[in-house]
Fold this sequence. Notes:
The structure holds two protein chains of two kinds. Chain A is mostly beta strands.
Amino acid sequence: EAEVAQSPRYKITEKSQAVAFWCDPISGHATLYWYRQILGQGPELLVQFQDESVVDDSQLPKDRFSAERLKGVDSTLKIQPAELGDSAMYLCASSLRDFDNEQFFGPGTRLTVL
Amino acid sequence: ELKVEQNPLFLSMQEGKNYTIYCNYSTTSDRLYWYRQDPGKSLESLFVLLSNGAVKQEGRLMASLDTKARLSTLHITAAVHDLSATYFCAVDTSGTYKYIFGTGTRLKVLA
C-alpha cells in the first residue's frame, strides 16, 4: 500500500541550530502539505505545494522556515535557527487534489528543541 | 476566516456505551473529513463526507454531514477500549484544497 514517507522520525536539537525534514509523498500525488502540530492541538498548515509551486505559505514563519519541492516530488522543510517554541510534530501529507481531496499523512517528525 | 470547533474536547466513557462527537464550522463547505490519532502517532483517515446528508459507517463509528447546519457528527456505538484516541474533524475550505482542523476530541474508553 502506498504511503507518505518522512524522515527523520525524531530529531533533538539545540536552539539556534538548523534542522531539516524530508517528505516523499504518495506517487502521483501532485499536492503536498506540511503541517505543524503542537501537543494537544490540531495540525496547522504551514505550506501547500501544487507540483513544485507554493500555493499557500501564509502561516509559514518565513524569517526562519523555508520549504522547497524542486522537482515536484519530494520536499524539504528547514528551520534555521530553531527556537524552543518550534518543538512540535511536523506532519507531511499528500493528495490527488481531485474531487474528494483526501489527504494522506506520513508518520511525522517529532522535533524537540533544547 | 473559517473556524472549526469540536465538542466535547475530552470524553471519558464506559465500554458498551454510545456517544456523539460534534464538529461545527463557520463558513460554507461541503467536504468534511474525520481522522483518528493515537498518542505520538500520525493521523489515520476515517471518513470522507462530500455532500449534504452524507452518512458513512465503519464498525462502531458512523459519521454524518449536514452542510446547511454546518455540522458533522461522529457517533460511537457500544464503545470498546480500542477506540481510545483523539479524533479530529477537518473542513476543506472551498476552492483552496486546504484543510482547517478542529480542536480535537480526546476519547478515553474505560473498561
